[in-house]
Amino acid sequence: MGRGKPPAAAIPMSERQYRLLEKENRKRTTLIQYRERIEILLRSSRGESNGQIKREMGLALNTVKCWRKRWHDHYGHLTRFEQGVGPEGVSDGELLKHLLALRKDAPGRGAPNALALPRSNRLWRWPVKSQSGLVFPLLLGRINCWHK
Question: Considering Cα of 93, then 94, then 100, then 104, what sign does the dihedral take?
Fold first, then answer.
């Protein structure tokens, strides 16, 4: 009897999608963070488990799960787009553009308002004067303050 959950199933990916992502992953101009994300998707489509991908790539398990989930959430849209409206479908360039839009981070809510944070969680800055006479803020990180 095994421990834990069974390994995640391979994510669905068409041969064309796989080929385009693999080609993009081999480019020298692809950013490292995008390469990692593409590699997660390619390995997941080959049926590798989340734990195996995590260990071999040196990533957090949640990162692997996040990108696998993001692919599952968008896969239906990607396949409909790949088929296109006409009999000719869409070009490789257009499909690649849609595939690469998936690899970007989801938009966040932005930084929380510093005034809305409890005093102990605020980021504190002090002005520092440089040798040239310019004053700039120095971010010191989270400081616990016990002011009443």
Answer: positive
CB atoms under 10 Å from CB of 54, counted, come to 18
Residues with Cβ within 8 Å of 139's Cβ and at least 6 positions away in sequence, in order, are 123, 124, 125
What count of Cα atoms within 13 Å lies in the side-chain half-sphere of residue 137? 6
Contact criterion met (CB below 8 Å) for 20 and 99: yes
Q: What is the pLDDT along the chain (148 residues), one digit of tens a residue?
A: 457 777 788 899 999 999 999 999 999 888 888 899 999 999 999 999 999 999 999 999 999 999 999 999 889 888 888 887 777 778 888 888 888 887 666 665 555 555 555 555 545 555 555 555 555 444 444 444 433 3
Q: What is the pTM for the complete model shown? A: 0.65
Q: Calculate the CA dihedral of residues 95, 105, 77, 21 and round it to 10 degrees.
A: 40
How is 79-137 classified by DSSP, letter by letter? HHHHH-SSTT---HHHHHHHHHHHTSPPP---PPPTTTS-GGGPEEEEEEE-TTS-EEE
- Give CA–CA dist 76/85, Å, rounded: 15
Q: Rg of the Cα trace of the chain?
A: 22
